[in-house]
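Q: Convert this sequence to structure tokens.
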Amino acid sequence: MQQEIRYLDFEGKRLAYSVYGDGPPLVIGPRWVSHLEEEWDDPEQQPFYVELGRTHRVVRFDRIGCGLSDRSLEPRPTIESESRQLEAVIDAVGGRAAVFASSCCCLAASQLAVRDPLRVERIVYFGGYATRHDIPPAMRTSLVQFTRINWGLAAQMFASLFDPNAGGDRLQRYTRMQRKAASAEAASIFLELDLGADLRPVVPHVTVPALVLHRRGDRTVPIARGRELASLLPNARFVPLAGDAHVPWEGDRREVFRALTGFLHGDVPAEVDARSPLTSRETEVLRLVATGMSNREIASTLVLSEHTVHRHVANILRKLALSTRVAAATHATRVGLI
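A:
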């Protein structure tokens, strides 16, 4: 099955989006620069979208100014205009959707969730942030200028940041993909917008359920920015992931999908499942145990005391008649309890 490319009119400009799979819509917001066709043909990215498409209608789009969308950037983009593009795509696929917001798209997704929460069912924030105030203004200016003046080297530099473990062929392919996605001028305009925005006053008003995923070794957006984002969201769970890739399709995808499963499908209370001896809270704790989180991390994520989490884990092991956390997570995953 192939993705279907479609177009919609957005404020007089052509906005390209793609649809793959069946089920409830999951809108994957665009990254810094994107190209629907190039990314679909990428052997690293397509399996990620196909896996999501097993349970959802995967919807992706190119922000105005890059990819298959209109390349004009007049007037200059703002976070508000970016949120309206996300809104237009959601309207095109049913009017309400879950959103997978990666990196800079977290800004537009948050803006829309505050302005019109009925459009957004829930948000997955991956490698995201509310602000990049950790980057000094002079460095931000330098990065923008470097991208505008030497887009080839800048694209290569960003490719190596997004996936530090990629080999030469992979880096070259991702570098070419970025250069096909956007011009030097467009890339620098988007970078200036994404690095300069500060949504810390907005994010506390995002009331929809949120899952914040962030790799511990992310070199593009440090995990401290993800923790800050999660702390500002009133209805969020924070799940740190192993690895250093900034893009979700690289690294251990199994860990990503384990974290997504309960959140995207809704947390069905385990008490109503006759197969499970676990309570809903114990099931939630075990899901986080399966991602490799410590009791302290689980306590922080669920806003519980570490002692309470320890008691839940002990009850889980007793009910499942198993002696280790790894054995409990493996068994529960195999039999479908989490």
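The mean pLDDT is 92.
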